[in-house]
Design a protein that fits this description.
The protein has about 230 residues and is of the alpha/beta class. It has three helices and 15 strands. The strands form two sheets. It has a nine-stranded mixed sheet. A five-stranded mixed beta barrel has the order 1-2-3-5-4.
Length: about 230
């Protein structure tokens, strides 16, 4: 997926009020950028880190600038959580994910009282697939999720587990944005309940997949699969 162009370089001054970030551009200007990420962004929202911003010409926008990427441990990290679903959708439609090829793709599928990110329909099976964006490493080279307690994420695991009993195939898909990551594990120290629910869901038959992204200032795409350590 191509990223907005051009991207403007700066240094993070601070991230605050969840959706705001002050950035000092390379030309010395201080701008406030929208931050499209609801998580804690620990390890990413670090003052002094190199960031890349996009700028919109839409006069209706409250903030013209948007925070897109941050440099962490020598790798670009895509912090835009909205883009994670689009990356997965692009990979699904291009049959780029083994085991999930040949399915019709429907985003935002209503199930129970939730909306699951994707429903995949094939000749012999139907799949519910939920996407989670991962920007945290709990150990060197081991990515983890979540970066804050997530009641919503816990509910999605319960929904996927319930779907199994109705004959669905169910998948939780972790989009790992950390380029140094070699494996994925639940962040038990941050949200122990999520870790317990993930293990119980997998034991029940929910499939847990983790894929590392390939991110550059020009594009972001789904890369290689990672081991899921439970």
């Amino acid at each position: 997926m191509k990223l907005p162009q051009p991207l403007i370089e700066g240094r993070l001054v601070r991230r605050y009020q969840r959706f705001l970030a002050d950035v000092e551009l390379n030309d010395g200007r201080l701008v406030t950028a929208h931050t499209p990420n609801t998580g804690s962004m620990r390890q990413c929202a670090v003052p002094g880190y190199q960031v890349l911003l996009s700028k919109s010409d839409n006069p209706q926008r409250k903030l013209a600038w948007s925070w897109e990427l941050v440099r962490v441990n020598g790798h670009w990290v895509d912090i835009n959580t909205h883009r994670a679903n689009r990356l997965v959708e692009e990979a699904l439609r291009n049959d780029a994910i083994p085991g999930l090829r040949g399915y019709a793709v429907r985003p935002e599928f209503p199930f129970a009282d939730s909306r699951i990110d994707f429903m995949l329909a094939g000749p012999t099976a139907k799949i519910l697939l939920e996407v989670k964006n991962v920007t945290l490493c709990c150990e060197p080279q081991i990515a983890c999720f979540p970066d804050a307690v997530t009641a919503r994420g816990q509910k999605h695991l319960r929904d996927l587990t319930a779907a199994l009993e109705e004959g669905w195939r169910a998948v939780i898909f972790f989009v790992v944005q950390r380029g140094e990551a070699e494996a994925f594990t639940p962040a038990d120290a941050i949200d122990a309940a999520y870790g317990r629910l993930l293990r119980a869901a997998v034991d029940a038959g929910v499939e847990a997949l983790a894929y590392r992204t390939l991110v550059s200032p020009a594009e972001s795409r789904i890369g290689e699969p990672l081991d899921v350590l439970l």
